[in-house]
Amino acid sequence: MPPQPNRIAGDAGGRRMPHTLLLAEPRGFCAGVVRAIDVLDAVLDREPPPIYAFHEIVHNRHVVDGFRDRGAIFVDDVAEVPEGSRIVFSAHGVSPAVVEEAERRRLRVIDTTCPLVTKVHLETKNAVRLGYDVLLVGHRGHDETVGTYGEAPDRTQIVESPEEAAAVEVERPVFVVTQTTLSVNDTADVIDEIRGRYPDAEVRNDICYATTNRQFAVRKVAERADLLLVVGSRNSSNSMRLREVAEDAGVRAYLVDGLDDVDPAWYDGVDVVGLTSGASVPDELLDPIIEDLKARGVTTVEPVVVAEETVEFRPPAGLEE
């Protein structure tokens, strides 16, 4: 048999392959993630090991593995940390019980909780002080929801779906807060159900600007794409939501950690590919996917811009120690 031609580009052996790549903008790192990563990076640079971090600093395997290679030790219980050690709290926030245990162990804490998550904690505490019961719309077990719930566990109930909202019972006036990384549309459905049962409920929709912008960008890309790739880790709530948003818009979508997770067969018969990434994902993880698509025949790379983000957060207290 004579040598066969390389079919990576063009028609891939007679099959139609992508010719256009749509890049969702904004995508990737949000201001809260940048702040958390910059802080842990600075601490590792200037302080001797060991440096501990409570929970993954952000929900991305590549970022966490990079810090682990530099000596960061990630723990899920502050009781594992030797007394007097340096510890960095993740961007997702922690409960008062964690703060108290860290103080008891005389840990030197730098708290990188995103300020927009801190806002939800404050709303929860204030609502309880004013006599409300709190309904927390969020995912059980997610680090952010665990931290917020811990502000007032006796007066807070977690609600994940409209079905749960239809069944929840409260004794006092209702105050609603939300996890910051939820699906905008799904959260609206849950809140509508709560309002239907408790018309006087005070509602704070706390989904953050970055989550909202990235979901809106995916919806715009989905108007033209045949396939959408979301780069992000499976423990990342906002990345999972981006895939769901695309699927809800009728577009086939996959969540991948990087190029190694991409199956080239997904491109068969596809003209236009969309690409985005979660708020914990460095842009460098997208570069190999973009180059691979170009090698397969993509000739047009087009940004789809829905917003420009200029938000920056100040460094947390303790970094100057």
Q: And the CATH topology of the largest domain?
A: Cobalt-precorrin-4 Transmethylase, domain 1
| Integer-rounded radius of gyration | 22 Å
CATH class label of the largest domain: Alpha Beta
Number of strands: 13
Report the structural category: alpha/beta
Helix content: 25-40%
Q: What is the string of SSEs from the N terminus onward? A: EHEHEEHEHEHEHEHEHEHEEHE
CATH architecture assignment of the largest domain: 3-Layer(aba) Sandwich
Shape: flat
Strand order, largest beta sheet: 11-10-12-1-13
Overall number of domains: 3
N-to-C span: 70 Å
What's the CATH H-level superfamily name of the largest domain? 4-hydroxy-3-methylbut-2-enyl diphosphate reductase, catalytic domain
What's the average pLDDT? 94
Count of separate DSSP helical elements: 10
Beta-strand residue fraction? 15-25%
Report what the structure shows.
The structure is a single chain. The protein is of the alpha/beta class and 321 residues long. The chain has three domains: 20-29 and 209-305, Cobalt-precorrin-4 Transmethylase, domain 1 (3-Layer(aba) Sandwich), CATH 3.40.1010.20; 31-114, Rossmann fold, CATH 3.40.50; 116-203, Cobalt-precorrin-4 Transmethylase, domain 1 (3-Layer(aba) Sandwich), CATH 3.40.1010.20. It is 35% helix and 19% strand. The strands form three sheets. A five-stranded parallel β-sheet has the order 11-10-12-1-13, covered by helices on one side. A four-stranded parallel β-sheet has the order 3-2-4-5. A four-stranded parallel β-sheet has the order 7-6-8-9, sandwiched between helices. The longest helix has 16 residues, at 31-46.
